[in-house]
Write a structure and sequence with these properties.
Blueprint: H1 4-14, H2 20-39, H3 61-72
Length: 84
């Protein structure tokens, strides 16, 4: 359920040296997959984020902040702090 800016930053960080066209294609594919998931009204999606995601500043602080707020505002999103 990544925002486009976060998806691009993540792909760029993990695919160093990959041509921009390839990165754009991969981002487009993620966005298409996101649209299909969101279009399914009966689909349940459970997501568990590890604390380490807060320590990886992929794309910089504003991109990470936007991504986290997007995730928390998703339809039906519930947040809780658990302990392993």
């Amino acid at each position: 359920m990544q925002l486009r800016t976060y998806a691009e930053a993540t792909i760029r960080a993990s695919d160093v040296g990959v041509p921009s066209e390839t990165i754009e294609r991969d981002v487009d594919l993620r966005m298409q997959r996101k649209e299909r998931i969101q279009a399914k009204t009966s689909l349940a999606l459970n997501v568990i984020l590890d604390e380490s995601v807060l320590h990886r500043w992929t794309g910089g602080p504003e991109v990470l902040r936007s991504q986290l707020l997007h995730g928390m505002s998703a339809k039906g999103a519930r947040t809780s702090a658990g302990h392993a």
